[in-house]
């Protein structure tokens, strides 16, 4: 029975506390509503405030009807504050020439009504105020000095063709050969790297070499050119033979890649095409040594196709070629004239008659 009584008293106490809190909150709500109503009345009494409210109401139209009283009060306060901030501060002009100086009194500020506690104080204007000065002698004092004019001369602007300087003619970076022909070897590639220590220039990516003397054109994936020591410091592209003293500017050049192709004139002035995996050009002898693949050589006079991968084809300076090395057999295809062209086919070994072949192959044994 005591426990039930204690529980009942506890519930009654909790209900009384909750009821008192609810009543306190209701009283605070009524007070805030009454304060807002009084503030609205006082604001509406002011002509400026009433004009601001009407302006706000006319600007928003139908949206204003859906807003509450507190929202309208906040909007009016904001407009009043903006109008006060935008109004310039009153300025006072003092004549310092008069001996008797009168102190200018600041305009009296209007007392704030008691019900306008919710309107915040206006912030100070962002415009700087003039600094007061004291007159230490006769004459007038300048309270503010004008900024000094900018006397710097602006840089000249090239707006007319007459002010634009004429273009400078381009000069060749490297002088051409001073021999009779005046020709140079031209090498083009995607990337070029020069090593001064090793006197080596490496060309990579779609390398194309055009040499006028001896006349040949070569394409490869990579080309390494070993320069002479006296020329590697000043030259970035090799030159052919024909310089002063008759010595070339580089020692040798080696072309490598998936397929090295060379177009060169033979001894008869006909174009011959050579293909290999590696081609080495000797700048002294001007011979081209083809290896790897095995190499092949095609021209109007025939087609050279060594079977051994170790075979070597040498393209001489005079247009002739030579086959060396290799353990296998080599095949040379020579085109023959068509029948009826009038040219006789030469016979091998004096042209033995057909009947004599039997005496050589079908020998009788007694």
Helix vs. strand class: alpha+beta
CA radius of gyration: 54 Å
Q: Count of DSSP helices?
A: 6
- Shape descriptor: elongated
- How many E-type strands? 12
CATH topology of the domain at 186-336: lipopolysaccharide transport protein A fold
Description:
Helix 1 (2-45) packs across helix 4 and helix 2 (47-60) crosses helix 4. Helices cover 25% and strands 24% of the residues. Strand 6 (271-282) and strand 7 form a beta hairpin. Among the domains are: 2-84; 186-336, Lipopolysaccharide (LPS) transport protein A like domain (lipopolysaccharide transport protein A fold). The protein has helices at 2-45, 47-60, 62-65, 69-86, 229-232, 355-361; strands at 186-188, 191-195, 200-212, 215-227, 250-265, 271-282, 288-291, 296-299, 302-306, 312-315, 321-324, 330-333. The longest helix has 44 residues, at 2-45.
């Amino acid at each position: 029975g005591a426990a039930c009584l204690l529980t009942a008293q506890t519930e009654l106490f909790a209900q009384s506390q909750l009821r008192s809190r609810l009543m306190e909150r209701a009283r605070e709500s009524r007070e805030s509503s009454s304060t807002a109503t009084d503030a609205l009345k006082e604001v509406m009494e002011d002509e400026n405030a009433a004009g601001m409210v009407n302006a706000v109401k006319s600007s928003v139209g139908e949206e204003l009807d859906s807003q509450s009283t507190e929202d309208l009060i906040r909007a009016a306060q904001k407009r009043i504050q903006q109008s006060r901030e935008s109004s310039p501060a009153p300025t006072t002009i003092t004549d310092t020439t008069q001996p008797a100086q009168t102190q200018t009194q600041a305009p009296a500020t209007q007392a704030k009504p008691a019900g306008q506690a919710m309107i915040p104080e206006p912030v100070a204007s962002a415009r700087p105020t003039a600094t007061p000065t004291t007159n230490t002698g006769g004459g007038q004092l300048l309270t503010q000095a004008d900024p000094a004019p900018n006397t710097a001369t602006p840089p000249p602007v090239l707006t007319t063709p007459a002010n634009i300087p004429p273009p400078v003619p381009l000069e060749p970076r490297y002088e051409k050969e001073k021999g009779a022909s005046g020709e140079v070897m031209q090498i083009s590639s995607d990337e070029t790297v020069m090593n001064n220590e090793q006197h080596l220039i490496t060309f990579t990516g779609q390398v194309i070499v055009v040499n006028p003397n001896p006349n040949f054109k070569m394409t490869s994936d990579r080309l390494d050119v070993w320069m002479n020591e006296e020329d590697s410091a000043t030259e970035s592209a090799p030159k052919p033979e024909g310089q002063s003293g008759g010595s070339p500017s580089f020692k040798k050049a080696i072309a490598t890649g998936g397929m090295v192709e060379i177009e060169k004139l033979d001894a008869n002035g006909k174009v011959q095409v050579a293909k290999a995996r590696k081609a080495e050009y000797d700048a002294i002898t001007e011979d081209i040594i083809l290896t790897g693949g095995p190499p092949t050589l095609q021209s109007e006079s025939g087609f050279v196709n060594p079977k051994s991968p170790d075979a070597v084809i040498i393209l001489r300076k005079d247009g002739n070629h030579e086959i060396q090395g290799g353990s296998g057999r080599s095949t040379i295809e020579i085109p023959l004239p068509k029948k009826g062209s009038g040219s006789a086919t030469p016979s091998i070994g004096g042209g033995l008659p057909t009947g004599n072949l039997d005496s050589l192959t079908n020998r009788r044994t007694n």
